[in-house]
Amino acid sequence: MVNSAEASLTAEEIVPTHWYNVLSDLTGVEDAAKLRQARPEGREGGGTVTPQIPLSMYRQSMGQERFVEIPQPVREEYLRWRPTPLHRARRLERLLDTPARIYYKYEGTNTTGSHKLNTALAQAYYYKQAGITSLTTGTGAGQWGSALAVACRIFGLECTVYMCRVSYEQKPYRRIMMEMNGAKVISSPNENSEAGRAALARDPNTDGSLSIANAEAFEHARQVERCNLSVGSGENHVLLHQTVIGQEAVRQFRAIGDFPDVVIGSVGAGSNFSGITLPFFHEKVREGLETRFVAVEPEACPKLTKGRYAWDYNDYTGITPMTKMYTLGHTFVSPGIHAGGLRYHGAAPLVSAMYHQKLIEAVAYPQRPVFEAGLTFANEEGIIPAPESAHAIRGAIEEALLAKKEGREKAILFNLSGHGLLDLSAYQQFLSGNMTDMGASDELIASSLGRLPAMDEPGAAAR
Ligand SMILES: *Cc1c(COP(=O)(O)O)cnc(C)c1O
């Protein structure tokens, strides 16, 4: 924790009783957000498989109600490891010789090691209430799958996880974690699903992608009774659940009498970024502050900085409904970087809409500078960051160096979304000098953008 002022707050006082719904503070994005589940008019195909979300959870995340009460059984689970600590990175500040104050919120302290358990618990609870007996999902690096496996065990649901092949092979420990919690884990793509066979036919050596894994999970959910598909990011309700992170941080900052000038998070689809930033966005709106928000993505999957704001599918085969979002195209398969959790082709509709309105900024970094930042952080602060989180660290270091150049004091907050203790083989590769930057080429991006569904806006032709 940062100092004694904060220590005087109890866990009960810091952990929020409600989630914060950003829709209540936005104008002009409601339509994009509400069309999350819809098939735009005049579209062929798509929308045959809709994400199956309990009505209670759906309403909360589409409504204008500013605060949604956290069910007591979920909050009790949160209190087992929340509030998560807000630390000041003093050694890193000294190393960079910066006038900036660098803070980080550490989400790696729970059993699964990342922020994803915040939504997994809420989802498992609501699905159980709705009479569902098993959940299935796709997972990239395995953080989401392990979070869902734990949450399913806690609330008494069965769990089947389709895990991207590149992670299934590179990160067997997360698979074991899921299996320890009673989940069944399948390497994706696999021959036993239509979506898997199609992906393998295109490229038998594919690394897999979250998009393919989700398509396989969709199929599974369709075939198994009382089984629903649960997703770990992107959807409004997921962003809603993650706001416990930022709300705690707001309280922790108030307690020490400081406030961030810039808030930074890495972006897979946008849940940890939203979790840390949205409550600060609420403070900014309420108090007329100048706070900036920076989303950091890998150059291997630059959906915000190089994607297009368009209607697209959420999965590789196009069986999901379309969403208006920043996307590289649903057939985009990111180079196999170690930050597997950032390889999804699109950004959450809410994050996309806010980016489109210039309420948030975005930057992209290549893999090596990200790992360099991760290693520096581990050396100075004593926590080995997940490669995904190291993107936010790179962003924070750049902001701190800018402050130094401009001779300006400022407070920087980033979300350390998870630990990297199961990512040591990636750090080993970095240390050995064999790591490459793996940016996505303009050709690769152009070709997948070329396969976007034809029409950009529903009713665009009529305008
Ligand atoms: C999954 C993951 C991310 C990226 O996903 P978001 O939904 O964008 O937050 C970032 N960091 C860690 C540690 C993750 O597990």
UniProtKB/TrEMBL annotation:
- GO cellular component annotations of the record: cytoplasm
Indicate whether Membrane appears among the record's keywords. no
EC class of this enzyme? lyase
Which Pfam families does UniProt cross-reference here? PALP
Keywords (A to Z) from UniProt? Amino-acid biosynthesis, Aromatic amino acid biosynthesis, Lyase, Pyridoxal phosphate, Tryptophan biosynthesis
Q: In which pathway does it act?
A: Amino-acid biosynthesis; L-tryptophan biosynthesis; L-tryptophan from chorismate: step 5/5
Family indicated by similarity = Belongs to the TrpB family.
Query: Which proteins does it associate with, and in what oligomeric form?
Result: Tetramer of two alpha and two beta chains.
Identification of the protein by name:
tryptophan synthase
Encoding gene, per UniProt annotation:
trpB_1
